[in-house]
Amino acid sequence: MGDIDLLGLVSRWLHILSAIAAVGGAIFMRLALLPSVSVLADDVRRALHEAVRSRWSKVVMAAIAFLILSGVYNLVMIERNKTYPAADSGLYHGLLGVKLLLALAIFFIASALVGRSQGLAKIRQNARFWLSLNVTLAVILVLISGLMRATRDKGLPTRVKPAAAAESHFDVGATADWRTEA
Questions:
Q1: 67, exposed or middle or buried, with CB in 10 Å at 0-12, 13-18, 19+?
Q2: What is the mean pLDDT of residues 19-43?
Q3: Which letter, b or e, does each residue of 13-32 get, where b requires 16 or more Cβ atoms within 10 Å of its Cβ?
C-alpha cells in the first residue's frame, strides 16, 4: 500500500463518520421520529422528547467537535500540500467558503434543537421546519464536498497502463487517447 498518512486517514474517517452520524440522525428525526410521536399523548411525547434530546445532544456536540477538529486538520493539510489544481483554486476556495458557512449554520441549528436555552425555545417549538432546513443544508454541504473532491482530483488520469506508458516514447501532449486505452 505504500506510505500511508495514518493521521490523515484517521482524520478523514473521523470527519466522514461524524457527518454520517449527525446528518443521518437529523434525517431519521425529521422523517421517522417526528411524524411517529405525533400520535402520542402530550405528556408522553414531552417525556420521550426529553429522553431523546438528552441522549442526542451528546452525539450532536461530539459530532460538531470532531467535524471542527478534523475539518481544520484536513484544511491545513490540503492547503499545505496544495492538493487542488492551481487553475481551479478560486473555485475550490469559493466552495470551501460556502461549505464553512453552511457548516456553521448547521451547527447552530443542531445545537439549538438539542439545547435547553430559553432564548432558542422557538426553534425547538418549530422543530419540523428547523430539522427540514438543517437536513436540506446538510445535503447541500455534502454535494459541495463531493464537488470539491472532484475538483481536487481533476486532471488525474482515470486509467493509465504504467508498463505501456514506460515502454513507449510518445509525447503525452500529442495524444488524448493515452488516458482511456484498455
A1: buried
A2: 94
A3: ebbeebbebbbebbeebbee
